[in-house]
Task: structure prediction
Amino acid sequence: MVKLKTVIGTEVHVQLASASKLFCSCPTEKYLEVPANSLVCPTCSGQPGSKPAGVNEEILGKVVQIALALSCKVVTNEPIYVRRKHYFWPDLPSGYQRTSLPVAIDGELAGVRIRECHLEEDPGRYDLRTGEVDYNRSGIPLVEIVTDPDFTSPEHARQFLEELGAILEYLNAARVEPGSTRVDANISIEGHPRIEVKNINSFKGVVTALSFEETRQRNLVKHGVTYGQETRHFDEGRGITIGLRRKETADDYRYFPDPDIPPLIVTPAMVEKLAKQMPELPRQKRARLAKQYGITAEEAYAICLEQEYADAFEKIAKKTDAKIAARLMRGMLKKQLNWRNRSFKQSKLTPELLCELLQMLSTSEVTEKVGEQLLIEFLDHGRAPRANAQKQGLLGVHGGDELLAVVEKVIAANPKPAADFASGKPEALHFLAGLVMRETKGMASPTQAQEMLRKALAKK
Result:
């Protein structure tokens, strides 16, 4: 039996970095921390008779740069109307959301087609559990990035969003507060109704929500259950989706141009100017680092997902072996940061500290096991690698006479495993090697320890 494909498309809503809201001068700074409804005015709280201001060029420019980074075609010299999208929900005080026609179309990222990018205002925050509404967020500028249904799995969606997040960071175009990037995903099993999952508030949540929803729909199909289009809410705490309402269509929103807002105009000169101001983007940096430093594509990808991480690598690569640095930053360091859900910037690591650790590893002053322990102790307790290693007596015992003495001591204290190895039981060597590593507190080279054990046991 042929397995039916999972079909996934997304609408990614990204809050743009802006000191004020889209259609009024209300501030956006710390809108999550201040008291509810303290950063509002008649416009963003939907008071009768209030009028919106026009969109400023800085905010429009951020949308254009994001579109260019996604290889989109920017709509130029044509009026881009801001429309009213009608729906009735407590987080929308005016009863409609202002959203523009596409600013750009036909892009691509990670093998996924970008259908369009457009500008819109964020609604307020509505707590489904308590019924409380906070309009501090209402009116914060958003870019909405709409993809075609090209995702083949929840993991593919995660990779796309990971790359998108890197682009937004490099452009310094998006806000960084929790929930500043939200995803609505459309998911269906091939030939069956499309389900929309709304308000997925983290990239990790995307994988959880889509994995749950894919399994739920496949079970419905497997058991012959009839179901229709609907909108579902992702409950992050429980990792499940919950039915909200029948899925709306475009006709339900009754779009029409907002008569209070002049149409937006993007000129070719504006696009050219913004393109010149753009930094080196993640995919460009990946290609350059791989070529310039001889590292693998996989290492370059992992390093370039965070701009400060990539910048740190380049500083380290100029002082140490770039290939060794790349292996550490893709492997040991990335693993420890991911486990702590921490970015490089949040870790307080510096290129100088990593150079210090790399030097100890490359000169065999410490083993990889000890090096990782030193890294962990810095991340958790702020202890500098070399000073910490010296304090704990962790430098040395990589090989040589000191290791040979430990090997002979272990063999003498464990005659039975030694005899077992001599009688053809290779697992006894691993047991003895483990004792050597314990005796040296992990400071010995495992490879050298096993080799010395073989030679010493051969003489018995």
